[in-house]
Amino acid sequence: MPDFSQARNTLTKRILEGAGRASFSERRAAFDNSGLAEPVSTLIDKVARHAWRIADEDIAAAKASGLSEDQVFEIVVCAAVGQANRQYESALAALNAASDVAPGKE
Amino acid sequence: MRLRILESGHGFGTKTLFALIRAMSRQPVMDVVKLVKYRPDFYGAPMSAVTQAAMREPSVWSVGDRELMAAFVAKTNECDFCIKAHSAVAQRAYGDGHRVPAMLSDLGSEDLPEPLRATLLLLGKLTREHAVDSDDIRAVLAAGASRQQIEDALAVCFSFNVIGRLADAFGFFVPGPEAFDAGAKYLLARGYR
Q1: Is residue A11 one of the residues assigned to a domain?
Q2: CA of A37 vs chain B CAs: smallest distance (Å)
Q3: Is A46 a member of any domain?
Q4: What integer pLDDT is reported at residue B75 of this predicted model?
Q5: B2, B134, B162 ranked by CB distance to A97: nearest
Q6: Positive or negative, the Cα torsion across A26, A27, A32, A33?
Q7: Where are the domains of chain B?
Q8: Chains A, B: CB contacts under 8 A, how many?
Q9: Closest-approach residue (CA) in chain A for B47
Q10: Which CATH class is domain B4-190?
Q11: CA angle A18, A19, A20 (to 5 degrees)
Q12: Using one digit for the tens of pLDDT, what is the confidence trace for B127-165?
């Protein structure tokens, strides 16, 4: 699926490096689920690890900390894509190890 | 939804489109549509390209198989909206010969052939534990999946690990079965673009 690989790269580049209302460093920190202060760190960690536990209060707390709705929208998207990327890359590395094919060589 | 901008922050043209969708489908506009249409250059447009590639590009997996994988990832993530949405698409894609609820609830179900069963097990582990190792992959290869089939399944897994997280974080409203059935017809006819 060459289109998928290209589309995934385009998505990641867009949300991390394109124009946005949240800063580049906030978007990157949300993507990595690392280096954010409370209460935003709690929200982003829930997005990454158990999104079904997110409650109204988690979003309300992020907004009360000074983030606009657009900034919350962006960092939640970054957190979701970041976690899915880590899963995908873990599996692709395992697939390469299991089938003894270097990445991109098939 | 938990963010007002996603509920009603769209431009005039998009709001007109939503009115048209409501009139044509006689169903409310799904929250997933409201999300992808909000500032689409940031998330909606690039993510739709990802999902379209994963779900509708040529693959050895049928569209029904990939929709079943989407529903299974959603089930592992406890995402009610995505379970219902993609169970409906899988059921419609497969037709009456398959029992999607049984396939989802029991991986030992006789409705579930190899290597689809082994692939679902892999996607479940990856979604639950966020990582898999080469032994997990070898089990799927041994069940008869090709390397390309595994890659294609991982693309589905990626897409629905993004979408399910957003459905839960933003608090998607879960409508009744008629709305999901209308959505399933649309996704089979038009895809994710």
Answers
A1: yes
A2: 19
A3: yes
A4: 97
A5: B134
A6: positive
A7: 4-190
A8: 154
A9: A11
A10: mainly alpha
A11: 115
A12: 999 999 999 999 999 999 999 999 999 999 999 999 999
Q: In chain A, how many domains are there?
A: 1
Contacts B151 to A, Cβ<8 Å: 1, 92, 95
pLDDT tens digits, residue range B44-92?
Answer: 999 999 999 999 999 999 999 999 999 999 999 999 999 999 999 999 9
Q: Is A105 part of a structural domain of the chain?
A: no
Whether residues B77 and A73 touch (CB distance < 8 A) is answered with no
Task: Read off the pLDDT of residues A61-77 as tens digits, 9 standing for 90 and up.
Answer: 999 999 999 999 999 99
Q: Name the one residue in this structure whose structure tokens are 């179900």.
A: B109
* Contact status, residue B72 vs residue B120, Cβ threshold 8 Å: yes
Residue A53 lies in a domain: yes
Integer Cα distance of B137 and B141 in angstroms: 6
pLDDT tens digits for range A17-55: 999 999 999 999 999 999 999 999 999 999 999 999 999
Is the peptide bond between B175 and the residue preceding it cis, with omega within 30 degrees of 0? no
- Taking CA–CA distances from A72, the nearest residue in chain B reads B3
Domain ranges, residue A60: 2-99
Q: B151–A1: do the CB atoms touch at under 8 Å?
A: yes
